[in-house]
Each structure stands twice: as structure tokens, then as C-alpha cells.
Specification:
The complex is a heterodimer of chains A (233) and B (207). Chain A has six helices and eleven strands. Chain A has 233 residues and is of the alpha/beta class. The longest helix of chain A has 13 residues. Chain A is globular and about 55 Å long. Chain B has a single domain, classed as Glutaconate Coenzyme A-transferase, CATH 3.40.1080. Chain B has a nine-stranded mixed β-sheet with strand order 4-3-2-1-5-10-12-13-14, sandwiched between helices. Classes of the chains: A alpha/beta (233), B alpha/beta (207). At the A-B interface, α4, α5 and α6 of A face α3, β9 and α4 of B.
Chain lengths: 233, 207
């Protein structure tokens, strides 16, 4: 591989060299599926605090981002679901962490909007509920609330396969929020199970063009944990 | 005799048209996936990014990256597709999904649903529920008829925080099938030997 390629880093620590306290971080994954395991582990060893984290679950079952949550590194969290994450639910109810619950479709659309240059949009989702409080209401075919784009300083995402330009291919349902977050963050760090040379992924099969990826590295020691193993009888 | 969860699932399935699309919520509705007859050719959507869920994987076909919205391992059927969360919620919010079946804490006669938090006590978050109730063509709530303290969960007005307003098309409980019409609940049918009195619902909201 070309050693001068500025996108390719040696590991998570190297790729996170300028990540600092007070920053906003997007983290891909649905529950534990598709999370950036190496980057999260690196964050547990870094002196970074007062983070704002945007992630659908903020980890789950004591794992994933819960590792930095219980180190009190997270000040504010944006997520859609805390069921299955008792460490977060406790901190939310005690107000140790400020949690903004966002309906999952609004969550993904706010992230997508940031990547697409859209400042705000109107949606019926959440109209008439607690999450509509303080938001502008406008009636089209029916009443809608205005939601604004969600940006981040950094995104940490994982892909199954990526090339040295940052073109990515995701496996099965591990794609979830990751391509959207890659587009929404100023600096996107990608860890991959397989780092390959440019040209090795067929252009038809690229799920996210490398334009949106600033840093990439070959990850290691993946656990790919299953939360609920259910099989045919 | 009240229906079992499986009988409730079978009741829900009678409302599905062949070749339609369905999103199943976490909890009680997940049992529906295993009960849908294959000749109905229904495609099951899971909002974490898959359309065409078939059920459970064989032991040697489990993949940690192939899960449903309840984070359970799944299998897919021929014709299935994977996509990101934006596409997935476009399917929901854009009005492309025919039915969603969700669990519920409370439903009222004005077609309102509450199912995501108990203030000060329990917060699960809404996940995709607020999107699903506003985007799906039909919203079916599958839930226990009574709360833990024995009160009916079909009410004149929800007490818990709303998930969506004027969105519920049908409620299936172990006691029967009910259609809120804005003022009252129409009884579509009752479980065998269940009587109106057994429902413990306010008389003012029942026909």
C-alpha cells in the first residue's frame, strides 16, 4: 500500500490524534451491530470529556459506547432508544447526562440533512408529543414540526470492506446510520475488517464513496457481539 | 376465553392483504413473523435496514450483522434487500409500508397512542414508533388489554405521553379487536366467551 496516502492510518489511536474534550461525536451502529469497536476502545484510554455523542443507542447491554458512558465522558447524548441500555436510562433519569430522545426516522433524517446541506425540514413525526415542545409547527396536508440538521466534529464508523481512498462496502444490516454519519461529520474515521487497494471494490458495489471519508484504518480483534441469539428450533 | 399471544397474532394476520409490506414492533408483535403463512407473500420490513425478513436463522447460518430492530438474529428470504437508515425510514415516513404492528401502553378513543415512556419511572425511548405511526398506511396496536393493576388500557383519553395523535386504526388485545373512531371504540369481534362487561372499559367509549 502507498505509505504516502494521507487517508490511511495505522490504528484507532493514530486516527483519533486530534479528537478533543467538548467535541461532538457521531458513532455508527444499531445496538452493537456495526459499531466502531476499535475507536470506542481507543476512546476509553483517552482523556476526553464533556462529549456530545450522537448514536442511536449509545451502546447497549453494558457494551459499545457504554464503556465511555460509565467513565463519565459523555455530557450530552442524542439517541432514539434507551431500552436495553440501563446505564444510560439511570443517568438520564438522574440527569447526570442530558439526553435528547429523537424519533429514529427524524434522527436519521437530521443526520442526512447535515450531510446534504439541508438546514431544516418539516415532518409529522412527533407532532403533538413531548418532543414537539418549543418547535415550530406548520400545516401542510397535516400539522408538521420543524427539525434541524445534526452535525458533528467527528464520526467513527465501521465497514466490512474499504479501500485506501475510503470507498466502503457494508455487510447486511451493519450499514444502518454509518453512511449518513460519514456525510454529516467534519472528520470521518472508518475502521474496516478488510482494507483493500483502490480498484478492488467494484464501483457498482460501493455503498459510500470515499469522498466522505477522511481517515481509514485496518481494524483488529473484532468481537461482533450478538445481543439476542435466536435460532430456528 | 381470552386469546393467547399466538391467537392474537393470527387475528392480526387476518387483516393483512397478500403481497403487502409489514413492519413489526419490538415485543409482542414479533411473534407475528413466525405465524404469517408463506403463501401470503408478505415482505417484512425491519427499520434497522432490511426488507424481506423470513424468520429465525438456522444455527449454522447465524450472522452477527443480520439482526432485526429488537437486536435479535434473523434470516432473510429471496427478494430481500439491505439499505441504510435513511432509506429505511424513507420507506416508513414516505408512506410506502402497508401495515405496522406495535405494542402499546395506552390507546384512546380519539385514535391516540402512548407507548414510549412513563414519566419519572421508565423511559425506553420511542425508537421508530413515532415515525411508524405517522407514516404507515395502517397502524395496528397489539397489546395486553389490562395494565398490571388490572385497568383497561383502552381509554377515553391517554394519560401517558403520546407517541402519535389520531393514528391508531385497530387494537388487538387478548379480549378482542377494537376500532377507535375518534369518539368510541367499535367492537370488531370479541375473543370466545368474552363479554362486554369483561372489558372493564368505560361505557361512554363503547358501542
Amino acid at each position: 500500500m502507498n505509505k504516502n496516502n494521507p487517508k490511511v492510518f495505522s490504528d484507532a489511536h493514530a486516527a483519533l490524534f486530534d479528537f478533543k474534550s467538548g467535541m461532538t461525536l457521531m458513532s455508527g451502529g444499531f445496538g452493537l451491530c456495526g459499531i466502531a469497536e476499535n475507536c470506542i476502545d481507543a476512546l476509553t484510554t483517552m482523556d476526553v470529556f464533556d462529549l456530545t455523542v450522537i448514536s442511536n443507542n449509545i451502546g447497549n447491554s453494558g457494551r459499545g459506547l457504554v464503556k465511555i458512558l460509565i467513565q463519565d465522558k459523555i455530557k450530552k447524548a442524542y439517541c432514539s432508544y434507551v431500552g436495553g441500555n440501563p446505564d444510560l436510562e439511570v443517568r438520564m433519569l438522574s440527569k447526570a447526562v442530558e439526553v435528547e430522545l429523537v424519533p429514529q426516522g427524524t434522527f436519521s433524517e437530521r443526520i442526512r440533512a447535515a450531510g446534504m446541506g439541508i438546514r431544516a425540514f418539516y415532518t409529522p413525526t412527533g407532532y403533538g408529543t413531548l418532543i414537539a415542545e418549543g418547535k415550530e409547527v406548520k400545516t401542510f396536508d397535516r400539522p408538521c414540526i420543524m427539525e434541524t440538521a445534526l452535525h458533528a466534529d467527528f464520526a467513527i464508523i465501521k465497514a466490512q470492506r474499504g479501500d485506501t481512498f475510503g470507498n466502503l462496502w457494508f455487510k447486511e444490516t451493519a450499514r444502518n446510520f454509518s453512511p449518513l454519519m460519514a456525510m454529516a461529520a467534519k472528520t470521518t474515521i472508518v475502521e474496516v475488517e478488510e482494507l483493500v487497494e483502490v480498484g478492488e471494490i467494484d464501483p457498482h458495489d460501493i455503498h459510500l464513496p470515499g469522498l466522505f471519508v477522511q481517515r481509514i484504518f485496518q481494524g483488529k480483534n473484532y468481537k461482533n457481539e450478538i445481543e439476542f441469539l435466536v435460532t430456528e428450533n | 376465553m381470552a386469546w393467547t399471544n399466538i391467537e392474537m397474532a393470527d387475528e392480526v394476520i387476518t387483516f393483512f392483504k397478500a403481497y403487502s409490506s409489514v413492519n413489526l414492533g419490538i415485543g409482542m408483535p414479533t411473534v407475528i413473523a413466525e405465524r404469517i403463512p408463506s403463501d401470503l407473500n408478505i415482505m417484512i420490513h425491519s427499520e434497522n435496514g432490511v426488507f424481506g425478513v423470513s424468520g429465525r436463522p438456522k444455527k449454522d447460518e447465524v450472522s452477527p450483522t443480520l439482526i432485526n430492530a429488537g437486536k435479535e438474529t434473523i434470516a432473510i428470504k429471496k427478494g430481500a434487500s439491505y439499505f441504510d437508515s435513511s432509506m429505511s425510514f424513507g420507506m416508513i415516513r414516505g408512506g410506502h409500508i402497508d401495515y405496522c404492528v406495535l405494542g402499546g401502553m395506552e390507546v384512546d378513543a380519539q385514535r391516540n397512542l402512548a407507548n414510549w415512556m412513563v414519566p419519572g419511572k421508565k423511559v425506553t425511548g420511542m425508537g421508530g414508533a413515532m415515525d411508524l405511526v405517522n407514516g404507515s398506511k395502517q397502524v395496528i396496536i397489539m397489546m395486553n388489554h389490562f395494565s398490571k393493576d388490572g385497568m383497561a388500557k383502552l381509554l377515553p383519553q391517554c394519560i401517558l405521553p403520546f407517541t402519535g395523535l389520531d393514528v391508531v386504526d385497530l387494537v388487538v388485545t387478548e379480549m378482542g379487536i377494537f376500532k377507535p373512531n375518534g369518539k368510541k371504540f367499535e367492537i370488531i369481534r370479541l375473543a370466545p366467551n368474552c363479554k362486554k362487561d369483561d372489558l372493564k372499559m368505560e361505557i361512554s367509549i363503547l358501542y
